[in-house]
Amino acid sequence: MKKLLIFLMLCTALLNANTLNIAVAANVSYAMDELIAEFNKTNKDTKVRVTLGSSGKLTAQIKHGAPYHIFMAANMKFPQSLYDDKIAKGAPVIYALGSLAILSKEDKDMSKGIKLLKGDDIYKIAIANPKTAPYGTAAMEAFENAGIYEDIKDKLIFAESISQTVSFAITAADIGLIAKSSLYSKTMLKYKQNLNWVEVDAKLYTPIEQGIVMIEEDKETKAFYDFILSQSARDIFKKYGYLLP
Predict the structure, then answer these.
(1) Taking the CB of the first residue and of the last residue of the chain, which one, N or C, has fewer CB atoms within 10 A?
(2) Is it the case that residue 211 has pLDDT exceeding 70?
């Protein structure tokens, strides 16, 4: 009953006139303010409300009727499932390619790359839950392909989303595998490349193709959808560490 009440409250909050309700994978949170500001330059009367979470949990909300207009996922699997279930108005389209980075609040020998995680001074490694967060799936794939999973599996702690993974990496864990885009927020600029963070070799995991779908199809929804696929938005995504499709 409590979960149902919370869900109904969420739906009521989202159903406001002149408001575009966007479900957004947590890794995109750092770029959203700038994306919305750019969109509002030409769509001044549209208020964009963002709900952040893991792609798996947001997909479940949408399948249970949460009134989002657009879903910006961290991979293609979840929006594809909405299309297959005839909930999305079209097949998912890639809007950005996400990449992984290793982050530690302490200075580390980042030249070791992912092998650093095997070190005796690394006791806890934060990653996003691979069952619900595509960046967690990519992290697990990287561990397997690097041949280190058996060595580090007992060190892993799991966060609900990639944003929570960042929090864990700089608090509860010694190190974490995060979305590279996370490093471009103002609060993260104090962490330096090759001292506190390094990119994970992209050959170790499948490129993270992030997909967008429309759940509702109206003028305002289409305007934001088209904007996310525009060159203006691509420039912003690139600024925040994403690769472009």
Answers:
(1) N
(2) yes
Q: Note the helical H segments in the chain.
A: 2-14, 29-40, 55-63, 77-84, 134-146, 149-152, 162-169, 219-228, 231-239
Give me the sign of the Cα torsion angle 123, 129, 131, 135: negative
Residue 192 falls in which region: left (phi positive, over 0), alpha (psi -120 to 50) or beta: beta
Q: pTM of whole model > 0.85?
A: no
Q: Which of 35-44, 106-115, 183-192, 216-225 has the lowest mean pLDDT?
A: 183-192
The domains found in the chain, sorted by start residue, are 2-97+207-239 (3.40.190.10), 99-204 (3.40.190.10)
Average of per-residue pLDDT across 11-21: 65
